[in-house]
Request: fold
Amino acid sequence: MASKPNGKCGCNKGFADSYMLLNHEDAHFFDLLHVLLSRNLGNRKFVDCHAGGAVEESFRHRWLIFVSVVLQKLLVLIAKPLAFFGNCVELLVNLLVLNGGFFRIVINFLTGHLVVPERDGPNYLSCIGNLDVRVKLDAIGRDDSRYYASLAMMASKASYENAAYLKALIKNHWKMEFVGFYDCWNDFQGKATTQVLIVLDKHEERDTYVVAFRGTEPFDSDAWCTDLDISWYGLPGIGKMHGGFMKALGLQKNVGWPKEIRWDENIPPLAYYVIRDILRKGLSENPNAKFILTGHSLGGALAILYPTIMFLHDEKLLMERLEGIYTFGQPRVGDEAYAQYMRQKLRQNSIRYCRFVYCNDIVPRLPYDDKDLLFKHFGVCLFFNRSYELRVLDEEPNKNYFSPWCVIPMMFNAALELIRSFTIGYINGPHYREGWFLFVFRLFGLLIPGIPAHGPQDYINSTLLGSIEKHFKAD
Reply:
């Protein structure tokens, strides 16, 4: 089953031909300081590195390692107060929404009718859900070429919610079958930190499984550590892939990516394997069924990494039935060799891959695409500006975000987005009206324009208002 771990990071890395692994738990002050002063990363006990070339000699690369580890240590330190603060914010917002505002809270309290939010209840929304409360799918019909892109984004947004809410949403509003919502194990963090929603969209012509990975929750330090972990593994014949994302998908410490596993039923499942088993069973029983993969933010990264392991294992049934991959605000996940490998495999198997990027969203521009980090995007980029006008590109403009020439234009754009919050409901109809919570969130864009642009609302609007039907019809 499992082999003995080796190396500094306590795991067997025999499945990889190269790697650069960071363990923030083993990083002490002087070790971090020496990273900045010494070119030899191999002498640092929190860095386990086996890679060709001299990329480790770059000061900028060592600076990025320093920042990554320091931020992870900080997030671990503030994990509990951050989660507590997030719970308080969510509770307050749900209290306001469920009672109809502040004054209604006072009246309901005095009259004994105060509605107290239940965190696991069917009416409780996450902070992400409260940014955009739309639930209906009837804005686009099933025969519309935009249907699966729109469904994918709505499922990506829904994946941030609790199981009771999802069951009610999918059954009562979407009229679909709720297959499951899974808390999945991260073998490196030692806890369940990856969430996956699976829905079955039944139709007389064919059935479609929708697999949606949850993205980064704003107050979840574990998810942020996954994003900030710039460790990587190089797989023979595939390329280098983001270590944090691979761990979230189901990489195992001692065995890597075996095709079949024996797993302790008392431990939550690994994301890749539980999804694969459900799809294997469902697709083999229904010859007309297909599936799509989707996710927002971190969820988008997991959605595009999933078929990589599927190709590695030569899962022929899944490869034949994968209809498309739709990611929204997805970060970069691998190097140029990995990008070339995926381009070839997606083309060979006729799998559509659409990467949605809204305006100044910071996340698709990370990790850096430069000579130090080597991360690359691939596939079609559907880029939308503030007016939701579509441009089909190979790479989003200002690809690494932190450009001094773009600061003023981005802040000006954020101010116009703030004004649009008041006008979009009148111009495009009540379906697009924005609430007070989203307006407050957009205020942050005046300081950091890329943060509000990463929210789900603009991606949903892009699938509805953007002229993507031209792209899909041409495709």
In short: Residues 1-7 have pLDDT under 50 and may be disordered. The CA atoms of residues 21 and 231 lie 5 Å apart. The two ends are 44 Å apart (CA to CA).
